[in-house]
Amino acid sequence: MKEDFLLNMGSDGVTDRLKRLSDLFVYQTRDFYRNNGLDIEPNWHMIFRLLQEREKMTVTEIAEAIHHSHPAVIKLINKMKAKGYIDSVQDTEDLRKYYLSLSAKAIQELPKLERYWAALSEALMDLMGNHLRLLEELREVEERFEEMGFNQRAEKILNTNRLPDSPSE
Amino acid sequence: MKEDFLLNMGSDGVTDRLKRLSDLFVYQTRDFYRNNGLDIEPNWHMIFRLLQEREKMTVTEIAEAIHHSHPAVIKLINKMKAKGYIDSVQDTEDLRKYYLSLSAKAIQELPKLERYWAALSEALMDLMGNHLRLLEELREVEERFEEMGFNQRAEKILNTNRLPDSPSE
DNA sequence: ACAATTTACGTAACCAGATACATATATTGA
DNA sequence: TCAATATATGTATCTGGTTACGTAAATTGT
């Protein structure tokens, strides 16, 4: 068990630990796919699920649904298109819009993919100790974030700390 | 309050939510630094802390301490060097090693930086609801990860699911 | 009806991780 | 002692995210 300096940093280490853990999941999921001969990327799962439910969506709608920037969605979708998993059809009324949906190939492969996703899902629950406390804590922070950003909270604290304190330097 | 599809995905959405939250912290911390005229990046904080405690360390030692790859540390350190925050001295006995330490400029700026880090730290506690439950849940998952990777867990589950089930397709 | 604004998609440039590969120096071992 | 192996740093290329900027189409409003 190697030393982990981020643990010493207490809450100040949380940002990096969140990313570090997320990265571990991503890299190992990619490994898992490759070892099992699946030609998909880890972050495509949410797009599959989304388009399974909604049938067709525009780039902007997807970006809003998953709370990511639209360029992030465009890059993701372009790779899925290149592999033939996504169909794109221009809206006849609003020429700016393109409706994205799962291709025939994607739908055909779904049953196979589902089996691997089920294994990943079980492994995840296993790793979380078969409870959802991490999710719950995450949700709490996400909710507070919506009330007021980290940014503004820090700025506010900086100001209140500054006034009663020394006006020096 | 906009819809968030990742919440619908339950535990399958956790990977992306961890990264999404971490990114929010990073981007808003960068904003905070820029608004206050500080010429540093968010992920430099842990390096400052580490070198404050250990005085001097090699790239490899830093990489091990924070559980990142060594190329990640090299990139990070090179940027800090470019801004004059890091000194590098070659070991006289082992010419492969370079001891990294905080520069005079870095040490001189520390008191100023501490005030901003204190504000960020408070803001973080605020956002976490003044408890450390998120950290505790995170720690649990990190520990289980050390016992067995996500990868192997998924592979194992895949195999046990396969045997008693249909050998079809 | 047409100018001004907003919306949708796309691109460029940046940050931050990882793995794979390369090179130089140390260490090991027959 | 010298060949083989291991270690330390560095580079290239991939992933994934962001903001800033650009262009075309739709909507708003006078």
From TrEMBL, chains A, B:
GO molecular function, one term: DNA-binding transcription factor activity
SMART domains tied to this protein: HTH_MARR
GO biological process: response to stress
InterPro entries reported in the protein's UniProt record: ArsR-like_HTH, HTH_MarR-typ, MarR/SlyA-like, WH-like_DNA-bd_sf, WH_DNA-bd_sf
Gene3D superfamilies tied to this protein: Winged helix-like DNA-binding domain superfamily/Winged helix DNA-binding domain
Annotated ranges, domain HTH marR-type: 11-147
Domain of life: Bacteria
Designated name of the protein: HTH marR-type domain-containing protein
